[in-house]
Amino acid sequence: MNKTDNSSPSQRLEKAMIAAGLNDPQLASALNTTKQTIFKLRHGKTSLSSHWAKRISAVLNVSPSYLMGIDQPTTTKESISQGTESALIPEYDCSLKNINTSNWVIPLEYIKSFTNSSSLIILKVEGDSMEPDYYSGEKVLVDLSKNIPSPPGIYAIWDGYTVILKRLEIILSSDPTVVKISSINPAYSSYNKKLDEITIKGRVIGKWVWK
């Protein structure tokens, strides 16, 4: 059974960039444009026109119509042996390279109350800044559609080199909007940044624990 992908063009662009292993500066370089332009397209601040869809699709190896929200991707839902509908969730490491070509098969009943499964990825944690809640090597479920840190929570952010987990909280009444970025491990200090200076990949909505 095929699952309809209701992602917006900006969300589809985000997923296609992750699948291709490209960040904003890298895609901008390939298209001879600025990283600010890609940022605006990826966050829906600039509409993804047919002109941009054609240029970007040639780099990301997807169809222009898919990026614009017309076509559907390959099947993202299947029936497992018991007939339970499940979502196929891709797995990535902290460099946003796909490291599990077989994907994770997760029953929809486990995740349907959280979000649309088409915007989910599995991310492998690296580093110790979020211990003891998140240890290096653990797998977390990230919702790529959640890139505004409200309410406060644990988010996956791009630090210019890799994706890291941090707790983000908007500082009330700040103008322009400022976000407090903190770790759980007390060995790491918190710091503040303007919201438009942070590349938020998504919100962490779950973690796999084996006992």
UniProtKB/TrEMBL annotation:
PROSITE patterns assigned to the protein according to its UniProt record, in alphabetical order: HTH_CROC1
Keywords, in A-Z order: DNA-binding, Transcription, Transcription regulation
Protein name, per record: HTH cro/C1-type domain-containing protein
SUPFAM superfamilies, alphabetized: lambda repressor-like DNA-binding domains, LexA/Signal peptidase
Tree of life domain: Bacteria
Pfam families named in the record: HTH_3, Peptidase_S24
Cytoplasm among keywords: no
Domain HTH cro/C1-type: start-end pairs: 13-67
GO molecular function: DNA binding
